[in-house]
Structure formats: C-alpha cells, structure tokens
Design brief:
heterodimer; A: Fumarate Reductase Cytochrome B subunit; two-stranded antiparallel sheet; B: alpha+beta; 7 helices; globular
C-alpha cells in the first residue's frame, strides 16, 4: 500500500514536471539541432531592439561613454533631410522671396516721399543704435553667407573653384561662422534692450495693417516710432535669433546636453530657421534700401527727412516735435542761459 | 569586383577588445580617438551579446552624402575614405553616421574640431599622399590593403568573430556557421549599412 502511494506520488510528480516543461516555451525551444542548449533563444536581436528604441546602446569598456551607442539608423533620415529637403526648401524660400520682391519692385517701384523732400532733417537713430544695428546686420550677412556655403556651396561654388580652393575657403568660413556668432548675439541683445519698448504692439498697429501698411499710395498709414511691419520684423528676428542661437550653440558644444539625435534636431532647427530668417532679412533689406525712398538714411546717417517721417511715422514725429518744443520753446533764445 | 565589408558574429565575440587595441596600435591613432570599439548589449542579462563596431563602409554612405566639401568617397572596393586635406571639421558626417564612426581631435576652443578621423579599413587615406608612404601613415594610419592584407582588427580576432573581406565571401562564412551551429543573432548593422541582411536557410530562426 505504501509503495503504491509512493509510486503514485512519483508518477504525479513526473507528470507535473513534464507539464511544466511542455508549457515553458523558452525551455522547449532552448535546444539546438544537436540537442545542446540554444543560446539564441534569449539572445538580443538588432531588429527587436530597434523596434523598442531608435538606437541600440550598451556598455563599453573604453572611458568614452558616448560611444556606447552601437547603431542609430536615424542618421540616414537626417542625411535625407540635409541633402534633399533642406536643399529644396532653402532654394524655394530664398529664391521665392527674391522673386516676390523683384516683381514688387517692377510693378510698384519704390515707395516715394509723396510730398517730396522738405530739406529739414529729423533725428531718428542715435549713433549707438546704429552701431548695434550694423553689428547685428554685418554679422548676420557673414553668418548667412557662410551658412549657405555649408549647405549650397558644394553645388554652386565647388564646381567653379575646385575642391582645394573650396575647402580652404569653407574652412575659413566655418571658423568665421562659429566666432562671429557671438557678435550677432551681442548685437541682438542690444537691439532688444533698446527697442523692445517701442515694439510692443498697440492699437495703432491694427489701423496700420487695415490700411495696408502705407503700400496703397494714396494713403499714409498711422504709426509710432516703429510701424506694424517693423514690429513684425523685430519680433520675428528676436524669435528666430533665439532659436538659431540656442540650436547653434548646442552644435558648437557637442554632447553638452545633447546626443547625436539631439544634434540632428538642433541642426534641422538651425537650418530651417536660418533659411526663413535669411528670407525675412532679404525683405527687410529691400524695404530699407531699394523699396522705399528716404528709408536708408535712418540707419545710414541717423536722420530722416521731415516729410518722410510725416508719411511713415506720423505719431512718432509728433512726439519728437513736441519734445523739441518743450526743450526749446519758441521765442526763447536757442542758447541755454548761464546759471 | 570585390565589395569590402565588416561582419561581427556577435555569438563569437567575447568582448576582449583586442580589435580595439590592434587598431590603435597598427594605425597609431591619437589619444582620445577610437576607430573601433566593442559594445556589450544587455550586459549581465541572459542573451547578452558583444559587438565590435567601427566604420561599416556603408553602401550609399550618409557621411559622404552630407559632407559639405565632398571629401568622403567610396573606393572601387567599396571602402569609404576621406581626404584630411579637404576636411573642414564641421561634424556633419558625425551627425549622419549610424555607427558613430567619425571622430575629431579637439583642437581649440568650444567644439572646434580638427580633421575627421575614422576607420580606413587599413587602406590608407583618400588624400594625395602616395599609397604606403610615411606621409600617408602619419595622416591616416596603416595601408595594409595596398599590400594585399585585410584590416588588422579582423585578422587578429582570436575567436574569428570579426570578419573582413568581400561581402559575399564573409556572408557565406557567416551563413555556414549559423547553419552548422544552429543559431545566430544576425549580422549587426548590415541592414542599416548595406541595406541587406544575410538570409540563412535553416537554423537561425532569429535572423
């Protein structure tokens, strides 16, 4: 009797064990054709890992821990962005802006001072304001051209001047791009500090926009020191400037707060914003030079014609004249009295 | 025409780092730069695998495509070489590379990068230097390939995990191994680098 119970126990135990083995798939498949344990049953696999995360990372013996990323196939997507998307977007946006401005110039011509020049000058920008503007503008032009060279140089310039000359030039352009960026940021900070109070949107900007910004010749839209168009340039330049500076400095300091994927994103942001920024500034240059009579003097010599100010910045002119009145009331001698 | 490739049989790699050391020694790679490295996936867990990785000498290499001065190019054997004379150290190849191969000596302030350095398949450089010359060695390292030899990392791999040579030949070796032993965790990086995988008829269910 006892032997029967013991045998039954062993039989049940054996059956249970077999059942467990049968259920466990890892164990079931864990044998190679020759009966040896199959190490692949639990091996990591590239495709599975890439489905779980965009890159495969592990442990590395050398001190350079950032090289512990084994495979990151997204580099091929960034390659496509850089070689196809960016080339087309950049060309369309920048050439498109130039085409639009050329058509505007041919159809409308420059915006003239309709009352003609008065001969009287009004001070518009101080020497320091002009310095800050030209610091930003000069560095922007260098940054823009050197940046475009990195993207378009190999298509446009390389075939013309040959690989060795192009490489030497691009090397210098890269150094210039990296270091002149600091001048641009300083200029941008100065511009924002000086002009932010005059660029806060006001009710008059709505009227300016309703009247088509003074581009309808019969009318002159009302505006303070900066009109709504200039305010738009200010805020867009500030936003683009921040985006481009942050993404640029992330690229200038590799692996500080970024990894390769982060730097790919930073480069995409940097390139897209840069292309839009260049288009914006091309429009800004057009309206400040060819597009409008008497506009360049404001940033050139710092003084504008009274009639230009009347037509484009009537409210600002009224304030300036009022200030002048207070400083030198009519009838009083222009010389300050001795104390 | 041979098409040179690397293949790391991760089921054989024992993370000994001899390939890393051999590469550094053979090419006298400067401090801070490792043209080859071994990464261990799932370290300490079941199914752990080590993979030796360097430049895979990709088909349609993304580094070559994005280079703004077009100094990276494939040779007729499919080896991706570059000219350090033309390289401007912009870092674009390093953003594009799926394998973290391009590296730069740090030469100055901020992130200013020197000339890019990467695995040359022990085939010298892509510059004007004469193959096998001292000038070429100083800039790019060894030119074993010009002497009819394969990269030293693969040549001295103690478990013959790392294979170098014509892609079809090493794929065949790997296929035979997988069929014979009945398992294989796959040709790591091949889909990304060469846009192809190695088909194994039996055994390697994980492929």
């Amino acid at each position: 009797m006892t032997t029967f119970v013991a045998r039954a126990r062993i039989a049940i135990g054996a059956l249970l064990l077999l059942a467990i083995i049968g259920i466990d798939p890892a164990f079931a498949q864990g044998l190679a054709p020759d009966g040896a344990p199959n190490p692949t049953a639990s091996a990591v696999n590239e495709q599975t890992l890439l489905q779980q995360a965009p890159s495969i990372q592990g442990r590395i013996d050398i001190p350079d821990t950032k090289s512990s990323v084994l495979i990151q196939p997204v580099g091929r997507k960034w390659d496509y962005f850089h070689e196809v998307t960016l080339h087309w977007t950049g060309a369309v946006v920048i050439l498109g802006m130039i085409a639009v401005l050329a058509i505007a110039y041919l159809i409308m011509g420059p915006v003239r001072i309709s009352a003609g020049r008065s001969g009287r000058k009004v001070r518009r920008f101080s020497a320091f304001e002009r310095f800050a503007h030209w610091l930003t503008a000069g560095s922007f032009v260098v940054l823009g051209l050197t940046g475009l060279n990195i993207t378009f140089g190999k298509k446009l310039l390389l075939p013309l001047i040959g690989p060795d000359a192009f490489s030497s030039m691009s090397q210098a352009a890269k150094v210039a791009h990296n270091f002149i960026s600091f001048a641009f940021v300083i200029g941008l900070v100065l511009i924002v500090a000086m002009w932010i109070k005059d660029n806060i949107p006001r009710k008059v900007d709505v009227d300016w926009l309703k009247q088509g910004g003074g581009f309808i010749k019969s009318k002159h839209a009302p505006a303070g020191r900066f009109n709504a168009g200039e305010k738009a340039v200010f805020w867009l330049a500030l936003g683009a400037g921040i985006a481009i500076a942050v993404s640029g400095y992330l690229l200038l300091f590799p692996f500080y707060g970024t990894n390769i994927a982060g730097m790919q994103i930073a480069q995409i942001v940097h390139a897209i914003v840069a292309v839009l920024f260049v288009a914006l500034i091309i429009a800004h240059i057009y309206i400040g030079t060819l597009g409008m009579e008497g506009a360049f003097e404001a940033m050139g010599r710092g003084e504008v014609d009274l009639n230009w100010a009347k037509e484009h910045h009537d409210q600002w002119l009224a304030e300036e004249l009022a200030k002048e009145q207070r400083a030198h009331p009519p009838g009083q001698a222009s010389a300050t009295p001795a104390e | 025409m041979a098409r040179m490739k690397f293949l790391c049989d991760a089921d054989r790699c024992i993370d000994c780092n001899a390939c890393v050391t051999a590469c550094k020694n053979e090419n006298e790679v400067p401090w801070g730069i490792n043209r080859r490295r071994v990464v261990t996936i799932n370290d300490g867990k079941p199914g752990e695998r080590s993979v030796s990785m360097a430049c895979m000498h990709c088909t349609d290499a993304p580094c070559a495509a994005v280079c703004p001065v077009e100094c990276i190019f494939p040779t007729e054997d499919g080896i991706v070489l570059h000219s350090k004379d033309q390289c401007i150290g912009c870092g674009y190849c390093f953003y594009a590379c799926p394998f973290g191969a391009p590296q730069y000596p740090r030469i100055g302030n901020f992130g200013s990068r020197g000339k890019m350095d990467k695995c040359t398949y022990c085939a010298g450089g892509g510059g004007p230097e004469a193959p096998g010359s001292a000038a070429e060695f100083a800039k790019y390292g060894s030119n074993r390939f010009g002497e009819g030899k394969l990269p030293l990392c693969a040549e001295m791999c103690s478990t013959k995990s790392l294979l170098a040579g014509d892609g079809d030949v090493i794929a065949e070796i790997y296929k035979t191994r997988v069929e014979k032993r009945g398992f294989g965790s796959g040709a790591w990086g091949w889909t990304t680098a060469y846009q192809e995988d190695i088909e194994v008829s039996s055994g390697g269910s994980e492929l």
